[in-house]
Queue: 2 jobs
Job 1
Amino acid sequence: MLVEIFADFVCPWCWIGRHRFLHALNQRPGMQIEIAWRPYRLNPALPPEGMDRTLYVTSKFGDAPRVEAMYALMTRVGTELGLDFAWERIERAPNTLLAHRLVRLAERAGLADAMVERLFAAYFRDGVDLGNAEALARLASEVGVEAGEAARFLASDEDRAAVLAADGAARRHVDGVPYYVFDRRFALAGAQDSEAFVPVFDAVRAA
């Protein structure tokens, strides 16, 4: 079963959704799954260097009490899944084009899923700027992609057009992320509870 997952690495519900999806997979042991990560940038208009995180969040979501309430909710949900959100460490709201390109590089070595998880944790737990090529190369080396290769790749324009094209195509049929497409037949939107995935798995296998 092919599962295409549209996500962005600065989307907390995408990280939560990934782990709910993994919990659902545990309820169907032995099922053969191929996961393909698809780019969807939440903030494509951000400059390459990104912007101050606090300024970005308040301009998008409003005053501090509202933002703190959102953080508290996501922290509580994340804790239930074993995810550690460290909001105070995040200083930049990055443009994630480089990060999505890096996943394509990792995919060639069969490391896309590991790269995706490291990107999520790096941003939300460690406060890493995902728009910084040097930082991304270090993260790549942690999952098995040679740091020098990653640095050279990110310094080039390789796969840039492909990621931009895929991102643009996604916007024509995906309203938000996370978004899951199963064998190009069924779709599920949002950070659904684990129980929501199981009947979809069964429907795809039956079809």
Note: The radius of gyration is 17 Å.
Job 2
Amino acid sequence: MNLLVHASAGVLVGQATGNPILAFICGILSHVILDMIPHGDSNMYKRYKNKELSMKKAMAGTMLDAIATVVFVILIFNLGIYHTKLVTSMALIGAIIPDVLIGLYELSLPNAPKFLRVIHKWHFKNHDLFAERRDFSFKNGLLLQIVFFLIFLVAL
């Protein structure tokens, strides 16, 4: 899923806890669960690794997602749509930290620390659990993610 979807889900489940530590844990769990749902990007990483997707295109998509996520976070805090700032912040951190660690893994190649290699392997095993059998097209996966985001946004 895109960071924007992970962030919105994290805020939603984090606010339900009212506790910063639980919000962080629930943010991570929401990330894991959402990544298990096929969402049209299972081949993107493979294409990137096989140099079928250029670094520029991969970075452009990542940057657009990051910018949308930052705008979402700014709006959440400026519109006061949160339980407490600490709970919301911890939920956001938990919800996006798995993908941040994957980015750190990629940046540290070929000498990635063992803990990042373990996280990377587990992340993609989880991410591709169901998508290996059947995934959406990129376009339909993007539409699915927009629907998820809108549902989470309305629920907030």
Note: The chain has a mean pLDDT of 91.
